Amino acid sequence: MPGRRVAGRVSAEPTTACDVTARGLRNQDRETVGDERAGRRLDLLTAVGAVLLVGLAVTVGRAIERADASLYVGWPPLYASWDPHSGPGSVPALALAAAVVACGPPAARILPWRDLVAAVWAVSALWTLALALVDGWRGFAQPLESPYEYLSSVDRFADVGAALRGFTEHILVGSPDNWPTHVAGHPPGAILTFVALDRVGLGGGVWAGLWCVVVGASAAAAVLVALRALGAEAAARRSAPFLVLFPGAVWIGSSADGYFAAAAAWGLALLAVAAAPAPAPPEPRRWRPDCCSAGRRTCPTGWCWSGSWR
Prior knowledge:
Elements: E1 3-6, E2 9-14, H1 17-68, H2 90-110, H3 113-132, H4 136-141, H5 160-165, H6 181-184, H7 188-199, H8 205-229, H9 233-244, H10 256-275, E3 287-289, H11 290-293, E4 307-309
Antiparallel strand pairs: 1-2, 3-4
């Protein structure tokens, strides 16, 4: 075996398997560090690209809106208005965000998978609810109580069968008793959800808002399920804190858009689970005598007196 050069001379000490293993581990560590740095550079480039894209949309949108006001949006590219303020949910939202930033990454690494999915769903719902409650309970319920939303049509479904049979007759704007904007623009399954809530005693904007928040927050859990089904559990765990603090939560609480987002996310997650390759079946267990498992076909006596299922 080759010797080891020490202080300008060749030592008689042979190179051992442990030395080879240690060098291999060091090389592997260098490759891992290089991959992590490359991944961080890609993440940084992605973030910079997203900022530039949003900045471009804001600049172009404001220019178009100033020119002819053809976008009909108050804060391009968002259908929103600039109104910074605080409220009952501000402090809980900030506290929750700080806790997720500090404890989220290590918790995502060590939690069992099912516990992680449940925790992401629960904390995402709390984050969404805290953001929605910046305007208080009145502001939380008000969006869904708009005359253009679903709750304004719940009373027209006293006879569900009759309402469904004539549903398409009231979609167009010029039709008699046409449906409000959101009811007309979506399949009747959406309005039927709020009709069902009303029938079980959970009518009104607050209960409808809570439904949208709880169901909408499950979209974060659906993303985890989809990533794991595609063989990317490590990426799913790394993304968990970001999914919890998803800025788009402002559109989930409280809006039926969160309900639709969750339906789409779970549809894709179930598709990923269905398309994922089935796990390899376990090898059949066989009886193996102890003396044979030690490397001999038979015991010295020709008989094997003990064994185990393996």
